[in-house]
C-alpha cells in the first residue's frame, strides 16, 4: 500500500510540473509593409546629362519711335562683302557676307540680268547657331549671252507666308566668259532702310504712322506695303526721303489698311531700281494688326 501511494504521488508531481511550463508558439513570418503611392521611389535623374540653355538672339539696338537712329546704330541685316560694287563677274560667282538669323538659317540668292530676269539662283546657309548672326557664302552659276549690267540679290523669307522679309543687293557686270575684275567698294554695312516706328511686335490700328531713316534712293523715293497673316497685301503707299538728293535722311508716312480680323502682319518698306523696276533693298517689321 505504501509503495502504491508513493508512485501515485510521483505521477501527480510530474503532471503539475509539465502544466506549469509556458506554451511556445512558433513565430510567424513578419509581414512585408505596404507602401502607398507617395512612398514609391522617385524616378532617378540622368547622371551626367547636361541640357544646354537656349542662346538668345543678339540684341537689336533700341530705336526711339519716330526718331531715326544714328547711322552707326543700325547694322545691315544682310551684308554682301563679295562681289564688290560694279565688279565684273563670271559664272560661277562667289557670293559671301554676313547676315542676321533667318528661318532655318537659309538665304536665297538670285542673279538678275539687265532687264531684271533671273539668270541664276541658289541658296546659302548662315554658318552660325540658330538665332545667331553669322557669315554665309555660296558659288552661284548663271548664264548670259552678252556682257551686261546685272544685280545680285540676297534675301530672307518668312516661315509664315513665304514672302520676303529682308533683301539686299549689289550691282555688278555679268560676263559670259573671260576673267572677273574687282569692283570699286563693298556694299555698305549700315542698314539702308531703318524702320523706327512701329516697333517690332507692336499692335497697330488701320491708320498708322510709319517712320524711319533711309539711305539715298533714286529720286529719294520709297514704297511701302502692308501684308496680313497669309501674305495678302492690304495696304500700300509711297513717300520721299526728307533729305537732298544723294543724302541719307528721315521718312514718314501715314498708311491705312483694311482687315476683317486681328492677327499678325508685316509692314514692308522698299527701294526699286530705275533700270528694271526690281527691288534693290527691302526691310520689314512684324506687327499685330487690329481691325
Briefly say what this structure is.
By secondary structure, this protein is mostly beta strands.
- The CATH topology name of the largest domain reads Immunoglobulin-like
Report the average pLDDT across residues: 81
Structural class computed from helices and strand pairing: mainly beta
Largest sheet: 5 strands, mixed
Which CATH top level class of the largest domain fits?
Mainly Beta
Percent of sequence in beta strands: 35-45%
Q: How is the largest sheet built, in terms of strand order?
A: 2-8-7-4-5
CA gyration radius, whole angstroms: 40 Å
β-strand number: 16
Order of helices and strands: HEEEEEEEEEEEEEEEE
Low-confidence stretches: 1-8, 10-72
Q: Share of helix among residues?
A: under 10%
Shape: globular
Give the CA-CA distance, first to last residue.
Answer: 130 Å
- The CATH architecture of the largest domain: Sandwich
What is the domain tally? 2
List the total number of helices: 1
Amino acid at each position: 500500500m505504501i509503495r502504491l501511494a508513493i508512485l501515485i504521488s510521483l505521477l501527480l508531481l510530474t503532471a503539475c510540473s509539465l502544466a506549469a511550463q509556458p506554451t511556445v508558439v512558433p513565430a510567424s513570418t513578419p509581414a512585408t509593409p505596404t507602401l502607398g503611392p507617395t512612398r514609391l521611389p522617385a524616378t532617378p535623374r540622368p547622371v551626367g546629362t547636361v541640357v544646354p540653355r537656349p542662346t538668345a538672339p543678339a540684341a537689336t539696338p533700341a530705336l526711339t519711335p519716330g526718331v531715326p537712329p544714328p547711322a552707326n546704330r543700325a547694322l545691315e541685316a544682310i551684308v554682301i562683302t563679295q562681289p564688290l560694287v560694279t565688279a565684273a563677274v563670271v559664272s560661277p560667282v562667289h557670293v559671301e557676307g554676313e547676315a542676321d538669323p533667318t528661318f532655318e538659317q537659309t538665304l536665297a540668292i538670285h542673279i538678275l540680268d539687265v532687264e531684271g530676269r533671273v539668270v541664276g539662283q541658289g541658296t546659302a546657309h548662315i554658318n552660325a547657331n540658330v538665332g545667331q548672326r553669322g557669315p554665309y557664302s555660296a558659288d552661284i552659276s548663271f548664264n548670259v549671252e552678252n556682257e551686261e549690267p546685272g544685280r545680285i540679290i540676297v534675301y530672307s523669307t518668312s516661315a509664315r507666308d513665304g514672302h520676303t522679309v529682308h533683301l539686299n543687293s549689289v550691282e555688278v557686270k555679268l560676263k559670259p566668259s573671260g576673267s572677273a575684275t574687282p569692283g570699286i567698294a563693298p556694299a555698305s554695312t549700315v542698314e539702308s532702310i531703318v524702320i523706327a516706328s512701329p516697333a517690332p511686335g507692336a499692335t497697330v490700328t488701320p491708320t498708322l504712322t510709319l517712320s524711319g531713316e533711309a539711305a539715298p534712293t533714286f529720286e529719294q523715293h520709297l514704297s511701302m506695303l502692308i501684308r496680313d497673316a497669309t501674305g495678302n497685301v492690304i495696304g500700300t503707299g509711297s513717300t520721299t526721303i526728307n533729305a537732298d538728293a544723294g543724302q541719307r535722311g528721315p521718312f514718314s508716312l501715314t498708311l491705312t489698311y483694311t482687315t476683317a480680323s486681328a492677327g499678325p502682319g508685316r509692314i514692308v518698306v522698299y527701294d526699286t531700281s530705275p533700270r528694271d523696276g526690281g527691288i534693290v533693298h527691302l526691310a520689314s517689321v512684324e506687327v499685330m494688326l487690329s481691325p
